[in-house]
Specification:
This protein is α+β, with helices and mostly antiparallel strands. It has helices at about 15-20, 55-70, 105-120, 140-145; strands spanning about 5-10, 30-35, 45-55, 75-85, 85, 90-100, 125-130, 130-135. The protein has four helices and eight strands; from the N terminus they run βαββαβββαββα. It is globular, with a radius of gyration of 16 Å. Pathway: Cofactor biosynthesis; molybdopterin biosynthesis.
Length: about 150
């Protein structure tokens, strides 16, 4: 198994995921990982965030993103883990990792996966602040980041 995709409520250990990527063997000369964490809002006051998804559809969308990356770059192993449910500031929220024979492909594919995940994966985010709760719209910057990868 060279692709590992998880959607879960439980926290994760990025080190364990790194170890799984490294198990690809000596063909993989590079491992690149990204761990996203719940950050405080610019104005402060974030009490928590709720991430909702559509089971089944979300995993299929993540697999499609991985397939697109594999069409562009030579990759050994690919790992995506995304949390759902209620999260607090500084909690782990997403992990993206790749192993590849070459560092440039590892860096580019990891950035591609994260950009497409932010734009195309069916997750919905609700923030809870002292002022109440509200659903968060997708950012224009996330749209623009994914656009740079168009062929």
């Amino acid at each position: 198994m060279n692709d590992l995709i998880r959607v879960q409520t439980a926290d994760f250990n990025p080190g364990e995921f790194h170890d799984w990527l490294k198990e690809a063997g000596a063909e993989a000369g590079a491992i690149v990982t990204f761990t996203g964490i719940v950050r405080e809002l610019a104005g402060g006051g974030l009490e928590g965030m709720y991430l909702e998804h559509y089971p089944g559809m979300t995993e299929r969308a993540l697999k499609a993103i991985v397939c697109q990356a594999r069409e562009r770059w030579t990759l050994e192993r690919v790992m995506i883990c995304h949390r759902v449910g209620w999260l607090q500031p500084n909690d782990n929220i997403v992990f993206v990792g790749v192993s590849s024979p070459h560092r440039a492909e590892a860096f580019e594919s990891a950035a591609f996966l994260m950009d497409y995940l932010k734009r195309d994966a069916p997750f919905w985010k609700k923030e809870r602040t002292r002022a109440g709760e509200h659903w968060v719209e997708q950012k224009a910057s996330d749209q623009a980041a994914a656009e740079r990868w168009k062929l």
